Amino acid sequence: MYPTLKPIVRWVGSALAVTALTSSVALAQNTGKLKVGFMLPYTGTFAALGIAIENGFRQHVTELGGKVAGREVEYFKVDDESEPSKATDNVNKLIKRDQVDVIIGTVHSGVAMAMAKAAKESGTLLIVPNAGADAVTGAMCAPNIFRSSFSNWQPGYAMGEVMAKKGIKKVVTITWKYAAGDESVKAFKESFEKGGGTVVKELSLPFPNVEFQGLLTEIAATKPDAVFTFFAGGGAVKFVKDYAAAGLKANIPLYGSGFLTDGIIDAEGPAAEGILTTLHYADSLNTKRDNAFRLTYAKTFRMQPDVYAVQGYDAAQMLSIGLNATKGDATKAVDISAALRKATIDSPRGPFTISASHNPVQDFYLRQASDKEKENKVVGMASAKLADPGRGCKM
Ligand code: PHB
Question: Does the C-beta of 147 come closer than 6 Å to ligand 1?
Fold first, then answer.
């Protein structure tokens, strides 16, 4: 008599079951422990950078009482060795095996690009606490991918303007041949040549090689007005020392993005004295915010903080802002993005905002290395509120 009743009852029943299922999944997504996966270099030329990032991140989570958006934090760790060929397997350990809610990583641009691809495909929240690969907040941009650091374009572009304004005309560039080096040099060249300078030679060697002798001989023979460089970590220490030992320092001033001297000024010693660099952090900001951050960091970890520690700290701040907006649900990328786009991050580096492609819009300081004071001192503002152009980003 009521031929349609049975299907209706069945439909109502299954709809209720679906509702129950979705709400229990939703519950599982924003309650219970928040799984944070660090994918960072813990070995190799960038090992100290990975440790500083993890320290900074943990420092902010500790300030939050060990919880982000009310969820207790549980950490997972993978050493990526700054090795792009292992990056996809490594990131899948966190995504598939550990099923983390958010990935914090990494330092190396080539590794970060593989991570961004995996994050985009799986929808896992990713906050990049260093690697500058332009594509991460450019062509590969996505609602669930953010950066708390910089794009390779930013410090290079800032330094090109500084050097052109100084009236420097002929420059040789030298770097590692991979995304970070190539993109830093390209951005430097963009603003330096716009300002009337010329890059007369672009030298490079494979990452992470440190056999600089042949290239230093070539610089001496070319006799440029100055040299612009991107090196970082252990490789930067060797380069700065070799440059001075080759007798080039006195005659051909060395400039670079701030990674050349940040966090490694002690290891570089007198060879670093006077080097001018551009970066979104410095040791002598002397603000209340930075002084408090530095004091806690030094007491907790028994070492001085650097730009990497700040970027790790701010990755945790960004995570907290994003997840507070979704009541702890790390899968709601669009809502996390909306909250971060509206926010001003109260960073030790100075306040910054997040661009439409999810990269910090921030001040770039001109800094000078002081060996005596073991500090990268602010000597001016190279570029205020500098925004990466976000080329190729469609979100
Ligand atoms: C990078 O590979 O993007 C990179 C590595 C180390 C730095 C900065 C950038 O200090």
Answer: no
Provide the mean pLDDT of the chain.
Answer: 94
| Domain extent listing, the chain | 32-150+284-358, 153-279
- Looking at the predicted structure, is the pLDDT value of residue 2 above 60? no
Give the three-class secondary structure for 224: coil
Ligand 1 centre to CA of 270 (Å) is 24
Instruction: Report how far ligand 1's centroid is from the alpha carbon of 338 (Å).
Output: 28
CB 318 within 8 A of CB 146: yes
Residue nearest (by alpha carbon) to ligand 1 atom 9: 131
For residue 82, the CA-to-ligand 1 centroid distance in Å is 10
Could you read off the pLDDT of 179-196 as tens digits, one per residue?
Answer: 999 999 999 999 999 999
Domain 32-150+284-358 and domain 153-279, same fold? Reply is yes
**What span, in angstroms and rounded, lies between the C-alpha atoms of 281 and 274?**
17
Average pLDDT over residues 149-173: 98
Give the residue with greater pLDDT, 211 vs 18.
211
Q: What is the CATH number of domain 32-150+284-358?
A: 3.40.50.2300
pLDDT of 23 above 80 = no
CB 335 within 8 A of CB 343: no
Ligand 1 neighbour 109 (Cβ under 6 A): yes
Of all protein residues, the one whose alpha carbon is nearest to atom 5 of ligand 1 is: 108
Q: Using an 8 Å Cβ cutoff, are 366 and 162 in contact? A: yes
Contact 55, 309 (CB under 8 A): yes
pLDDT of 354 higher than 80: yes
Ligand 1 geometric centre to CA of 6 (Å)? 63
Amino acid in position 342: K
Q: Domain 153-279: which CATH class? A: alpha beta
11 Cα–ligand 1 center, Å: 55
> What pTM did the predictor assign?
0.93
